[in-house]
Amino acid sequence: MSVQARVEALKQKHAALDEALHSEYIRPKPDDHAIAELKRSKLKVKEEISRLEIN
After folding, report:
1. Helix, strand, coil % (nearest 5) of the chain?
2. Is 17 exposed, middle or buried (0-12, 13-18, 19+ CB in 10 A)?
3. Do residues 49 and 14 touch, judged by C-beta distance below 8 A?
4. Are the beta carbons of 50 and 10 closer than 8 angstroms?
5. What Pfam family is a match, any one (predicted)?
6. Confidence (pTM)
């Protein structure tokens, strides 16, 4: 897989995590643990995208 293809896949994953986070927020009783995990996952993906785009 090329670097550009990997970046695109990560961007799609980041968008999916963002959607999941939004869905969790709009629930009647959002799960704080799930929100924290989703945010952590989004940050890891964003950091990996940044690292790949720099190199």
Report:
1. 85, 0, 15
2. buried
3. yes
4. no
5. DUF465
6. 0.89
